[in-house]
Amino acid sequence: MSASAISPPPPEDRLLLPLPTEDFELEFRVVARGGTRRGIRLERAFWLSLKQMAESRKCTIGMLVDEIAESHAENGNLTSAIRVACIRALGHENLNLRRLASIRTVNAILLACPSPAFALASTKKIVTFNAPFQQLVKRQLPTAFDGDTRQDLKLALDLNVADIFARLDTNGDVAVASGFVIGAGERRYRGQLNVVRAPVLDPELLMAFVFNG
Q1: How far apart are CA 133 and CA 36, in angstroms?
Q2: Sheet strands (E) in 44-144
Q3: For the chain, N or C: smaller number of CB within 10 Å?
C-alpha cells in the first residue's frame, strides 16, 4: 500500500472536523432523580450533549435521563438509549437551524424592513432586495428598471466586502456602516448603509440597510 493511501487528507479536504481525544474518554456519573439513582458510564461528548440539552430545555440532566429511561424501558440498555436520544436531538436542532439559515429567511427579513434593504454576495452582486429599495432605485436611477424587469446595477462600497466580514467577526457581528454608490447607465446615487451578516451558511451574504435613502 502506498504512503498516499494511508496518509490523512490535508485539512482543507477533510469532510469532518478532527475529533478531540478527550471526547472519547468514558466518565462514570451517578444521576439522581425522584429517589432513583442511576450509575451511568458515557463518553464525555455525550455528557456534554446532555448538559446542552438540559440547558436548552431548562431542566436537569437527571430529568432527561429519567424521561429517556421511562420511554425506553423495554430496551434495557440505558446508555445506548441516551446516546441515540442525544444524536436525535442534535439532528433535530440542526434541521431547525438549517431551515432558519436560508435565503427564505433573508427574504423575509428584507420584506419586513420598511427602509430600503438588499442582500449582497461576496462578489458585490445584489442577490435580493425589498420593495423600498426598488422604489429608491426607480426614483434615483430610472434607467435601472425597464417596467418590472431589473437590469444589472453597478454597486461600489467604500469598504471592501472582505473587510466588512472581518469587522463583523471582530466586533461580534455589530453592524458596520459604509458609504455606497449605485449606478445604472450614466446615473449615480450615493448613500449610507448599515451592513450585517445574513443568517445563511452557504453562500455567505451580507444584508445592507440604507438609512438615508
Answers
A1: 61
A2: 117-121, 126-129
A3: N
